[in-house]
Amino acid sequence: DSSAPPPPFLEERGSKGSNHGRSDTSPPPVCPPTSVCSLGPPVPSTAVYAVYTSGSTGRPKGVVCEHRHLVSFVHAKGEDEKFGPKSRVLLASSFTFDLCQGDVFTSLAFGACLVVAPREALLHDLGAVLKRSRASHVTLTPAVWSLMRLQPADLPFLRSISLGGEAMPVGVVQAWGM
């Protein structure tokens, strides 16, 4: 019957053998019902996400971001960098990098278009991706930005370059008159 739903797909992580991704028509285990509403509404001190540091001090550690921190950051970033419905924000960093959170949440909050390019394209020719996407905003590390051999005139749509996550070389600042 083509109208019947497909059988549930189970992925058994960490098990050995040939049962990875097997189709199983047995009923799922019974779990107690839960509801997001039962958690109550978010409050400023509620955790919204966690990131892990790079471990540059010796050991990586988890850092919890609360709603109040995210809201304050998103508001400040959006206002300072003039995000809006006509903004095109190139998501140039990995989801695991905390700089990414600012671009994602600020784009959502200010109605901007979040441009997600293939990772391969970002790694091989970021300048071309910026041009093709007509990005108005981008957030990168100074090291990645300094690899591009472009001048401000090459990227007429780019209104905001946010660099962070590491020390800023003076040459990067001087080259772009920042």
TrEMBL record:
GO terms for molecular function: phosphopantetheine binding. Residues 1-33 are annotated as: Disordered. It comes from the Eukaryota. Residues 39-176 form the AMP-dependent synthetase/ligase domain. InterPro entries: AMP-dep_synth/lig_dom, ANL_N_sf. Gene3D superfamilies: N-terminal domain of ligase-like (3.40.50.12780). GO terms for biological process: amino acid activation for nonribosomal peptide biosynthetic process; secondary metabolite biosynthetic process. Pfam families: AMP-binding (PF00501). GO terms for cellular component: cytoplasm. This is AMP-dependent synthetase/ligase domain-containing protein.
